[in-house]
Every structure is written in C-alpha cells, then in structure tokens.
Amino acid sequence: MVGTALITGGAGFIGSYVTRRLLADGWHVLVYDAHANGNVLTMLMPEAFDDPHILVESGPITDGERLRAVCLAHGVEVAVHLASPLTQDVTARPAAGIADICLGTAALFEAAHAAGLRRIVWASSVAVFGASAHYPPGPLANDACHRPSTLYGSCKSLCETLSRRAFETDGLDVVGLRLSVVYGAGRLRGYMSYPSHMLREAAAGNPVHIPWGRQPLHWQYVEEVADLVATLVVPGAGGGGRTFNAPGDCRTWADIGAVLAAARPDLEITVADEVDPVLADVVEDYDASALAEACGYTMRWPLERAVPATLEHYRKMLASPILLQKVGSVASNH
Ligand SMILES: NC(=O)c1ccc[n+]([C@@H]2O[C@H](COP(=O)([O-])OP(=O)(O)OC[C@H]3O[C@@H](n4cnc5c(N)ncnc54)[C@H](O)[C@@H]3O)[C@@H](O)[C@H]2O)c1
After folding, report:
1. Structural domain span for residue 323
2. CATH number of domain containing 132
3. Predicted confidence band of residue 334 (pLDDT cuts 50, 70, 90)
4. Orientation angle between helical segments 303-319 and 194-203, nearest 10 degrees
5. Which of 31, 40, 84, 89 is the pocket-test mutation for ligand 1 (most atoms within 8 Å of CB)?
6. How many domains does the chain have?
7. Residue nearest to atom 21 of ligand 1 (CA)
C-alpha cells in the first residue's frame, strides 16, 4: 500500500488504533484532531510524535478550507473521518455538537471532493436507530428506518444523508460505518467507556463486579473497527455511497464474565442479575450482512479473542510507568 491517509479524530480512541493499523499497512498518516497531543494516541503510540510516517495537525473539523489545504499540501489520497463529540457532549452543548458533527462532516466531504480524494470512510453510529419498540425482534436490518432518540443520533442520521449526497452529487467514493459499543485498552470517554474500564480493572488484578449480568451489549472490539477501516479505506473496496451496520459480538455481561474467568482464573468476579436501566430499551443486535455482501468483511474479533487481547494490552500499559503517566495526563485533560 502506498499513499497518505488523513485521519480526523486520529488522536482519539478509535483513531489511535486506526492510525496504528494503517501505518502497519504501509500508509503515511496525517492525524488531524482538535486535541492532537495528550490524547489516546499519546498513550497508545508514545513514539508517534517522532515517527516520520505520521504528521500531526491540531485543528477544528469545521475548518473546511484548512482541511482542503492540508490534503493538497500533503498529497492526501484517502480519509478516515472520526472527529466528533460523543452523545453526552452533544446533549450538553447542542449548538457546538450540531456544528462539529454535521457542519464538520459536510466540511470534510467538501474538502475531500475539492482535493480529489479517492476514498472516505467515516463513523456513523447505531444511535441513528431508536428504541427497540420501533423495530421487529432480532438483529436490526441495515435499511431499518432512522428513529433517533438522541440529538447525537439525529446528527449522525443527517451525516448519512450528507454522505449519500456526496456520493450521488459529487461522485465522492464515501462509505459509512455504524459503530456500536466499541471497547478496548485506552478508551477514556463516553457513557459506554465502562466496559473498557472494567477490563482495565481486571487487567490490574482487581476484583470485578458485574452488576448488569442479564444485559446484552453489541460488543465491538476496537481492533475490529481498525481492521474494518483498513479494509474499506482502500480505493475500490466496495460499498460506495452507503452506510453499514458494522459487526460486533452480541452477548450479555454474564457472558463476558465467563470469558474473563476463563482468561484469568485467579480473578475474583461477581455477576449480579440486573439490566442497565439506561440501556433498557436499546436495540441489542445489528445485522451486518449488507456489509459482508458489499465488501466480504465478517467479524474477526469475538469476545473469546478480544477480551484476552484487551487484558494483555492493558497489562502492558499498566506495567509501564511512562504509559501510566500518560493515562493520568490524558484522563485529566478531558
Ligand atoms: N466509541 C464508540 O463506542 C463509538 C460508537 C459509535 C460511533 N462512534 C464514533 O466513532 C468516532 C470516534 O469515536 P471515539 O470513541 O474514538 O471518540 P474519541 O472522543 O476518543 O475520539 C474523537 C476524537 O475527535 C476529536 N474531536 C472531537 N471534536 C472535534 C472537533 N470539533 N474538531 C477536531 N477534532 C475533534 C477529539 O479530540 C478526539 O480525539 C466518532 O465519530 C464517534 O461518533 C464511536
């Protein structure tokens, strides 16, 4: 693989893993992020800031002119668009949230078109769908109607329309991925960061209590997302103009307790039989067969593979005084 990939939000949780993965595939990477330093990238790849294959730019996603200019200046060929506030940020600050998600995505698509980029992959969310009561039982179809119950979900829904428009009107080869509960070592932000925090406690050897044993979640390992993005970002990979449910492992917290116990028999694990009231009416599973048909990608990271990988990754982070220090500084920055 050759060429330069722009990764907006590339210093955040998913962006850091995508950055690492695209570098491994031979891409040069241009990270563009409002908080480029002291973020997850600093923790995951402390060497990133000295790596000649990575350029790091700090800036707002709404600055389309700057995005166009950096793409042209650095010969960017493809882009991964991840820069976005998360659910609670948009609820707390609607004007800024709408601007950053909707205007930011529109600005990125326009800049990509103006700079002649060959492929864009961007992160939508299963939050475009609404309460489970609106849908038939079973994994939710890719083309199920949008009934977002949060402002964040409404913004991502508008971005899906922008994405379709960019494909149909500008001929931009753009593909969206609806992510769900992304977990892995280093996740710091968002309500759904608590699965990752629980795994961090387990990696540290601390007792783990799982209150929501009966609660199913659509567990999506961060390396799954990185693999998927790496597959889709290649020009001609398929699925252009569409947004897809991304694969995840739909399992209960009790299941993850069992996987943890198998990986770390020494751990003290207790599992209660509750459901998380915040998630009581969310859709539990998403049908990712449309994505598989479009580009051949199916789930590679079930819990049994991903949980031990996360524990090992956290173990290394926790064993490194430098990384621990970074974790502290990142956590206090946000
Ligand atoms: N983590 C999940 O479970 C999940 C689920 C569904 C969708 N997503 C989507 O995936 C993407 C990445 O999420 P994440 O978990 O890595 O979040 P994150 O907060 O760790 O990373 C997002 C990055 O975007 C940057 N950013 C935010 N607003 C910006 C702005 N206005 N200008 C420039 N940079 C800005 C942040 O500094 C951060 O580094 C987002 O688009 C998010 O909506 C994530």
Report:
1. 4-251+260-333
2. 3.40.50.720
3. very low
4. 60
5. 84
6. 1
7. 12
